[in-house]
Design goal:
Elements lengths: L1 E7 L6 H9 L7 E6 L6 H8 L6 E5 L4 H11 L4 E4 L4 E3 L3 H6 L9 E8 L7 H10 L17 E4 H6 L11 H13 L3 E10 L5 H18 L3 H23 L5 H22 L5 H35 L6
Parallel strand pairs: 1-2, 1-4, 2-3, 6-8
Antiparallel strand pairs: 4-7, 5-8, 6-7
Helix pairs in contact: 5-10, 5-11, 8-11, 10-11
């Protein structure tokens, strides 16, 4: 038996399409467990209505962070195979079939699929830019990746073995959980297709907050420390090179430009992949703007990580 679990908080606007996408699956979950973390926008009332039409659905209210909600949902589940996802997603019709299919092989203990951006017709240029800054393109899933808990599955006993999702950390709980599973079980079985589409942030404020919160918890857990050190060093070196170029010789701009081109290449590739249906003018405009979006996001990451380090040292980790 398998169970699909999810936590929600104020997701009333995204849940109708979520349920529509789940009900359309070629293989339905045996059980769906959703934990509401205390919504105030009518999410709980909507879920209560859906229990009358979706027989597999079980709902609970439980206050706590994402990790606590996921652990609570898994404890309430009856399935031996757990599939974890997030609100704000829609799915390829074969997603559920694909993510549980590998468990027919005895050696498979967990699996994951790729994911991509979910765009609406009304989305602005900014939404596409934020997508390119935060969401991998399909070709990036050719390499192994740390599974996102918007599309991962595992045997329930493996969740128990590694101690579940870490509830002490506000964000990045899936990174720590993944790392524990990798140490215990090795890499998951990868379905290297973006079978889950996820809504990107649509405003700069929310984009900044997303990256700030995520790297803040990386600071709490000392996650990706080397990557963060490199980011601080690169920006400091870039500022120094720019100063030298402006006060001495513009030749010093050459290494700065080469470094920027190398760094931005991945984001530009995503941009053109996500906007291949747009006009050339639209694509060129985004091409010129995206360096500023990336830099803005890096400010969020650097400030968030620093705050997280300090909070971790002072043992004052909180939701924030």
């Amino acid at each position: 038996m398998n169970t699909l679990i999810m936590t929600v908080f104020n997701e009333k606007t995204t849940l109708p399409k979520w349920f529509e996408s789940i009900i359309a699956q070629t293989v339905m979950p045996d059980e769906i467990v959703i934990v509401d973390g205390g919504s105030t926008d009518g999410t709980w009332e909507y879920l209560q209505e859906m229990t009358e039409t979706v027989s597999e659905l079980k709902i609970f209210r439980e206050t706590g962070n994402i990790a606590h909600g996921r652990n609570f949902a898994i404890k309430k589940s009856t399935g031996s195979t757990i599939v974890v996802t997030d609100a704000g997603c829609v799915y390829d019709k074969n997603w559920f079939k694909s993510i549980i299919g590998p468990f027919e092989k005895k050696e498979v203990t967990w699996s994951a699929t790729g994911f991509g951006p979910w765009f609406e017709k009304s989305d602005t240029l900014l939404t596409y830019l934020i997508s390119a800054a935060t969401i991998p393109a399909a070709n990036e899933f050719k390499k192994n990746w740390l599974p996102s808990s918007r599309s991962v599955a595992f045997h329930k006993d493996r969740w128990q073995t590694v101690g579940g999702y870490p509830e002490w950390i506000p964000f990045c709980e899936d990174v720590l959980f993944d790392n524990k599973l990798i140490r215990k079980e090795g890499w998951p079985y990868f379905i290297r297709e973006p079978l889950v589409l996820w809504r990107p942030r649509t405003k700069l404020r929310k984009y900044f907050k997303q990256l700030y919160n995520y790297t803040r918890s990386e600071g709490h857990g000392l996650i990706n420390t080397f990557r963060q050190i490199i980011r601080y060093f690169v920006y400091l070196a870039s500022i120094l090179l720019l100063f030298v170029a402006l006060t001495n010789s513009l030749m010093f701009l050459i290494p700065l430009l080469i470094g920027a081109l190398i760094y931005l290449d991945k984001f530009w590739r995503r941009w053109f992949a996500f906007t291949d249906h747009k006009s050339i003018f639209y694509q060129l405009l985004g091409f010129l703007i995206i360096p500023f979006i990336i830099a803005f996001g890096d400010v969020a990451k650097m400030s968030g990580y620093l705050v997280g380090l300090i909070e971790g040292k002072l043992s004052i980790v909180s939701e924030g």
